[in-house]
Amino acid sequence: MSERADIAVVGLAVMGANLALNLADAGNKVVVYNRTHAVTEQFMRGEAAAKDMVGAGSLEELVSLLEAPRVILLMVKAGPAVDDLITALSQHLEAGDIIIDGGNSLYTDTERRQAEVEGRGLLYLGMGISGGEEGARHGPSLMPGGSPAAWERVEPILKGIAARAPDGAPCCEWIGPGGAGHFVKMVHNGIEYGDMQVIAEAYDLMRRGMGMRPSQVSEVFGGWNEGRLRSYLIEITRDILATTENGTAMVDLILDAAGQKGTGKWTVISSMEFGEPTTLVAEAVYARVVSSDPERRRRAADVFPTPTSELAGVTTEDIEQALYASKIISYAQGFRLMGRASAEHDWALDPGSIASIWRAGCIIRAAFLEDITAAYGRDPDLADMTEDGFFAGQLLDAETPWRRVVAGAVSAGIPAPAYSSALAYFDSMRSARLPADLIQAQRDYFGAHTFERVDRPRGEYFHHDW
Questions:
Q1: What is the pLDDT of residues 242-271, one digit of tens each?
Q2: CA-angle at 322, arms to 319 and 327, nearest 5°
Q3: Which residues are catalytic?
Q4: Is the dihedral of CA 239, 243, 249, 251 positive or negative?
Q5: Is 244 helix (H, G, I), strand (E, B) or coil?
Q6: Contact 418, 409 (CB under 8 A)
Q7: 53-55 and 123-130 strand pairing
Q8: CA atoms in the 13 A half-sphere facing the CB of 247
Q9: Contact criterion met (CB below 8 Å) for 31 and 59
Q10: 8 phi and psi angles, rounded to 5 deg
């Protein structure tokens, strides 16, 4: 390498290795480092051997090979490892150098790290990355936030490796200061949990409730992928359900115990902290928790046989409507949560821009995001995307089949927690009056917590001698 490098990648697991190759393909000179040097050597003997790339044997050597101001992308497991690496790197860096955390760090950790790093004269970005192995190699969705001065330096590099939306726009844009980038990635992942759950419920309703074989359900998903539900997750579901091993559907050979890494849980916790419900994501998280103990469920199945398991009076078209309506509710909840966090942290998040950079590269990429981008284009100050004329009309059109699916699932004993919770939220949000008046009376009765009155201005509180 005749000149100093443009960027370094620390951590050569699947995501780090593929991002390094992507960066090199985009014309950047890249330095790579892994704590286990044998991993670096193996990587450099592989596809990297033909790239403008060099492997460093130590962090000190890595820093010496970079052009100032130095840009270092950390691709290590979120948590203490990030703090340890920042401490080790800082000994070799100079004022103005830039550290980017590309892992799934909790946004509050990112805000703390930015303050600490900037106290040393360095710049810091917390960047959400979505797209998995394929996205990292050929174009992910990138959500950078943190030090604004750092964005000026890295914008050309990051936009150069990002996925391209259908209109050619790079799926990378400045999200905001502090932990904004990692917060938006966290909500993205929460929405991803919800998307996977509503798809799984559709599969279960067709499989158990309609007696369809996986190959038949695959054909239904294939049809849906040609319409308004066209997306990466619908596409891979079609492929998964069509896959067999020795004549048996592959999905039937997989233990029904779903794992999780925490970002869905973080989304729900944050929603509680900010007072913005993400009920569908919460149900998706709890569905994975319930699934994680199959032995317990099988014991219960012996004690409590299902009522019928036959989904009477419901069509696949009804299920498509329930899935789509529930998806609208989930995204509306996610965008409301981002809006509330933005207001409290003064991040100035742009919901239209966020929807736009999710249109390609990321796991939740879908035609649906074009409609969300358009909605915020019509009204950048839209408080709730369900209030947009297009989405309001879609919910009204879906209401009757959505109710039919939920009622049918309840009667058949087939759990549909995402569809049910989304419908309950929809009904709650459009109720002019809820039974919370009774709850407030109860709170005042046993704890003198006071209440507001309908015949007096908001903000005045009263207590009754019950």
A1: 999 999 999 999 999 998 888 899 999 999
A2: 125
A3: 185, 192
A4: negative
A5: strand
A6: no
A7: unpaired
A8: 0
A9: no
A10: -115, 150
Q: Cα–Cα distance between 49 and 106 in angstroms, integer?
A: 35
pLDDT less than 50: residues of the chain: 1-2
User: Tokens standing for 51?
Assistant: 């790239």
Main-chain dihedrals φ then ψ at residue 456, nearest 5 degrees: -135, 160
Residues 215 and 206: their CA atoms lie apart, in Å, by: 11
pTM: 0.94
Distance from C-alpha of 373 to C-alpha of 383, rounded to nearest angstrom: 14
**pLDDT, tens only, 144-187:** 999 999 999 999 999 999 999 999 999 999 999 999 999 999 99
List, edge to edge, every strand of the sheet that includes 71-74: 53-55, 30-33, 7-10, 71-74, 98-101, 123-130, 141-146
* Nearest one of 76, 151, 147 to 117, comparing CA atoms: 147
End-to-end CA distance of the chain: 82
Nearest to 332 by CA among 406, 269, 382: 382
HSE-CB of 80 using CA atoms within 13 angstroms: 0
Q: Which amino acid is at 202?
A: A
Evaluated on CA atoms 169, 175, 181, 185, the torsion sign reads negative
HSE of 76 in the Cβ direction (CA atoms, 13 Å)?
A: 21
